[in-house]
Amino acid sequence: MISTIRNQTYKLEFKSSYAKSIFGKEDINDILDQRQEESEKVYSSNINLRCESEDKIHLNQTLEINCSIKNNGNLNLKNIEVCLENQCSIIDLPIMQEKHIIFQKNFDKEGHNTFLVVAKNDDISRSYKLNVLALDKPSILIKNIKSPEKVDFEESFFVEFEIEKDSFAIPKNVEIIMVINSIEQKWSLDELDSTRLYKFRIKGSDLKLNSNIIRILVRYNDHIDTYKTEDKVIIMLNEPSFIQKIMIFLNQISHKINNLFS
């Protein structure tokens, strides 16, 4: 709190960023207190504490944190508490010995997280800071599909649709595929951060007799896993003439041959 000469009081709030992580005042105070304790316990400089984990994880998945602690000094250490928050292991660490400890942590909120693994007893205090980005699984919606229900052999028509990000995580390496019979159209994006509209022109002569299923498939990832979303629409071809039926048959053969060599 800050008081002024006019007796007005303000509450001081501040944030600092480190490696894209956000620190509140309480977090910074904890880190400063830990650094102060390490400097006061002079034998701490002989202790090497290191931890490793994935730097990205999905919500509600378990993050495994592997830590190693080594005594490089000339004093046998007993009853060292090695803790990640409320998870603790108590170890003895003789001269030049190294021990390994595994912690687990879950995240239920998206965003950057910074936390400390702390090792301490009466003689030493050491910490290691970890930064982890917690993400929901990326999700893409296919929506607003527009196409005619029925078309004639001589017609050309459009199928259009939108894809939209439906998650906090940004879908990466997005591949959009639309397939009708033996015809395939592809688009690609490095990432999807806004709604995109796609439109594709199709000839009635490329359709099969009766019903035709148009499939829309979207594949994407988040550098952790791979996902897909799909939808479909059905278009009917109005009854063609005898000559048109022959042309449809020949067109289907032609498309299949082209696909073999594409």
Describe the structure.
- It is a single chain.
- By secondary structure, the chain is mostly beta strands.
- It has two domains: 26-135, Immunoglobulin-like (Sandwich), CATH 2.60.40.10; 140-260, Immunoglobulin-like, CATH 2.60.40.
- Helices cover 13% and strands 55% of the residues.
- The chain contains two helices and 20 strands.
- Strand 1 and strand 2 (9-10) form a beta hairpin.
- The model is unreliable at 1-21 (pLDDT under 50).
The span between the termini is 71 Å
Number of strands: 20
> What is the CATH C level class of the largest domain, in words?
Mainly Beta
Overall geometric form = rod-shaped
- Overall mean pLDDT: 85
Largest beta sheet, briefly? 5 strands, mixed
Briefly summarize what is shown:
With 262 residues, the protein is mostly beta strands. The chain is built from two helices and 20 strands.
